[in-house]
Amino acid sequence: MNNLKNLRGTVDLLPEQLIKWQNVEKIVLDQLARASINEIRTPILEMTELFIRGIGEATDVVSKEMYTFIDRGERSCTLRPEGTASVARALIQNGMLSNNPLQKLWYMGPMFRYERPQAGRQRQFHQLGVEFIGYDSVRSDVEIIALAWDVLGKLGIKELNLEINTLGDLDDRLNFQKSFLKWLEINKNSLDLDSQNRITKNPLRILDSKNIQTQKALENAPRLFNFLSEKSHKRYSKLKKNLEVLKIPYVENFNLVRGLDYYTHTAFEITSGALGSQATVCGGGRYDDLIKQMGGPNTPAIGFAIGLERLILLAGKELEIPRKTDIYIINKGLIAESLAMNLSRKLKNYDLLVELDLSGASFSKQFKKANKLKSKSIIVIGDDEAVKGEFLIKLFDKSVNGNEEEVISFENDIKLEKWIKNNLLVN
Ligand code: HAM
User: Fold this and answer.
1) Parent domain of 336
2) Are residues 120 and 243 in the same domain?
3) Alpha carbon 355 to chain centroid distance?
4) Residue 295: left (phi > 0), alpha (psi -120 to 50), or beta?
5) Ligand 1 lined by 303 (C-beta under 6 Å)
6) The whole model's pTM is what?
7) Which of 13, 82, 271 to mutate to test the pocket of ligand 1 (most atoms within 8 A of CB)?
């Protein structure tokens, strides 16, 4: 049999890589907890209809990129390509909005899109998403953008650009679409093939075509911005003013329409020059009609999702450094080994990284291992110590200042705790 391999576009995350993932996740999740945002976990597998109705049938995500299959009960199921539609479903289904019409939620986990894999683009990737549900003020738009901006800033990521746009409300877009379709009919031949195909399916998406010829032609097309109502205009101006007050730099991009159909008013993306062609690390926007459209109460909302693979690429090397071992327990001999196991269990009550040597190898080999790990301290238990009912604990890594060494009886938990506090738990 051939060696089995993972599916194209999926990756194994190995222990060394996960050090950075865990460090990044910790910083990000601390930020979210401080902002009083609660976690929600929804299934990875949903009914296909959820995404057709939620994201839009004509979007690339739904029409080309979903992992959809018929299960044994003949239901059409899909591996979630994003989290917003699932969160909306969960809110409605669990009646969460009747108890609390305002909800701040986050989620993190794998998403699936059948795209062409390349650096920063996978078929199974991970997102961290945040959704503010029930909030309609411009201040909530600003708060959500500031949150995304600060999460990225907290990780020390530089070269970030925030692009914003407004998509107006449904009426604004219908008005625009009428004139845009007229223009498209006349100028069809100046567009690339992909864009021509979108005219009947999803004309708005033509605006963010990356094709140079199409972009040039679009310079003379009607602009959505000019079809916005007075109210939508005011809202957008307020958003820009608020961002300026918070000193969050932004660039307006009138072609930013995003790839999912549920957006209204504010749409934004954060890109980084350091990422290459897949530059968008965060995308989000307002979706005031989605929850109602899916059968829930009329509920405005806004959110974003950060692509974790891209975030990891951007985060600094200092986050790749593993935590150092605090205590390495060197032990040999029958009684010594069982005492060592007991002691290692006791030490798990402290915020320490403890490793018990289970090799049964010679003392010198165990010392070598402790040395290789650059353990801050070691405990030594041999036959002599076992007979006396005590062990030796001593600082091992020369860069750690402290009380050198101590012999402690296995019963003397107070002395052990004191030594740990004085030598290992000091900042
Ligand atoms: P999205 O722009 O489709 O938005 O995805 C958000 C982020 O997920 C992207 O900016 C990118 O960093 C990452 N991403 C998307 N596809 C891939 C891929 N194939 N490989 C690696 N990373 C990827 C959404 O999903 C919306 N649900 C965001 C949102 C939340 N809007 C409102 N609330």
Assistant:
1) 323-423
2) yes
3) 31
4) left
5) yes
6) 0.93
7) 82
